[in-house]
Amino acid sequence: MFSAAENHLETRLVHEGTLRSELGETSETLYLTQGFTYESAESAEARFLNEEPGYSYSRFSNPTVAMFEERMAGLEGAEAARATASGMAAVTAALMGQVRAGDHVVAARALFGSCRWVVEDLLPQFGVPCTLVDGPNLAEWRQAVRPETRTFFLESPANPTLEVIDIAGVARIAHEAGATLIVDNVFATPLFQRPLALGADCVVYSATKHIDGQGRCLGGVILASQDFIETKVQQFLRMTGPTLSPFNAWVLLKGLETLPLRVERQTRTASALAEALHDHAKLARLTYPGRADHPQAELIARQMSGPSTMLALDLAGGKEAAFRFMNALRIVKISNNLGDAKSLVTHPATTTHQRFAPELRAQMGISEGLVRLSVGLEHPDDLLRDLARALDAA
Ligand SMILES: Cc1ncc(COP(=O)(O)O)c(C=O)c1O
């Protein structure tokens, strides 16, 4: 019997949660079935009453998905995890499962575009207004609280600006207000930041990013205490059905086996690229959480155990220069994904954050020249050559 308690993270990411069948297969079994049969009508009744253990329907639970959930819970140090079809399904369920009409939400202003749509457009449609605040400014979180505030939501480091928020500070304000805190930890990865240990009540991931990390499938996951999952998330997921496919859960289990190897290597390369490129003449600014000139370097040292696979490059020549740079790249690909084995660049102002008016983008720190770089597994020298040549051409 595998003991998570006595093993290191790398070992647990290969073994934890494995449900081996009587055939003794090496790789986790892919239970590609939408449902399960029962020995008798009595057994079906007992299964639905939760009086008998076992699976009934893959919208509710599935053994391959359960293996992924258990491995993720072990990685995050969470009591419970629920997988979802995508990162956005995880964000939406974590928020919608908690609020009722008349409640109020506070969220950081600098969010991934779809996350911001959920808090700014979707929740108000159901009578749940949202106040957006400047995430690093704790006084703004405190001022935004109302008696009916139910939950806080933030990303740190934020997509795409790499702005960092004091998670422990925001958690304290949330708890004083009787609210919960949800943290989208996609950019930090579970390896470099532990929001639950910092006081957050719930962590969400797009597993599409570093957890798969090889461009194969979408997925998401919600991690929290058993009570949080049971009282706020479980029923919402079971009844509305944003379920992770067993096939994708199997792919994500394979991704977890190599997550530390990939993220550590990608981060080493990202750090080297940040050092080599930070004073390039075509850049107005290079932001990287591992550099001493990051505006929140002191908070990063306190809150994170490693920097990031992501860089933000602000081209001095605006959109035209950013496009020239991106079009001149030969190895690095243009994409809106991140956390992948392939290095990828994104121009947020014209893609992920296109729907925002220029003033709103400016408030979020997204300039016309900003290019988000997700560093992959290519050789660092090849990436540096590609990026430096394309910057020269910008
Ligand atoms: C910070 C953040 N949260 C959530 C998501 C949504 O994830 P998915 O595309 O898996 O729905 C993304 C996707 O880019 C993201 O960057």
For the biggest β-sheet, the strand order reads 1-7-6-5-4-2-3
Largest sheet: 7 strands, mixed
Counted by DSSP, the helix tally is: 15
Radius of gyration, in Å, reads 21 Å
Number of strands: 12
Low-confidence stretches: none
Task: Give the termini separation.
Answer: 57 Å
Small-molecule binders here are: pyridoxal-5'-phosphate
Helix coverage percent:
40-55%
Q: What is the average of the pLDDT values? A: 97
The sequence of SSEs as H and E is: HHHEHEHEHEHEHEHEHHEHEHEEHEH
* Coarse shape: globular
Task: Tell me the structural class.
Answer: alpha/beta
Beta strand %: 5-15%
Question: What is the topological layout?
Answer:
Elements: H1 9-15, H2 41-48, H3 63-76, E1 80-84, H4 87-96, E2 104-108, H5 113-125, E3 130-133, H6 138-144, E4 149-155, H7 167-176, E5 180-184, H8 189-192, E6 202-206, H9 208-212, E7 220-224, H10 226-240, H11 246-277, E8 283-287, H12 297-303, E9 310-315, H13 318-328, E10 333-334, E11 344-346, H14 358-363, E12 370-374, H15 380-393
Parallel strand pairs: 2-3, 2-4, 4-5, 5-6, 10-11
Antiparallel strand pairs: 1-7, 6-7, 8-9, 9-12, 11-12
Helix pairs in contact: 1-3, 1-11, 3-11, 4-5, 11-15, 13-15
The structure holds pyridoxal-5'-phosphate (PLP).
Pyridoxal-5'-phosphate (PLP) binds next to α4 and α5.
Structure overview:
By secondary structure, the protein is of the alpha/beta class. Helices cover 41% and strands 14% of the residues. It has helices spanning 9-15, 41-48, 63-76, 87-96, 113-125, 138-144, 167-176, 189-192, 208-212, 226-240, 246-277, 297-303, 318-328, 358-363, 380-393, and strands at 80-84, 104-108, 130-133, 149-155, 180-184, 202-206, 220-224, 283-287, 310-315, 333-334, 344-346, 370-374. It has a seven-stranded mixed sheet, with helices on both faces. Strands 8-9-12-11-10 form a five-stranded mixed sheet. Strand 5 (180-184), helix 8 and strand 6 (202-206) form a beta-alpha-beta unit. The chain is globular. Pyridoxal-5'-phosphate (PLP) is lined by residues 86-88, 91, 112, 114-115, 155, 159, 184, 186, 206, 208, 218, 220.
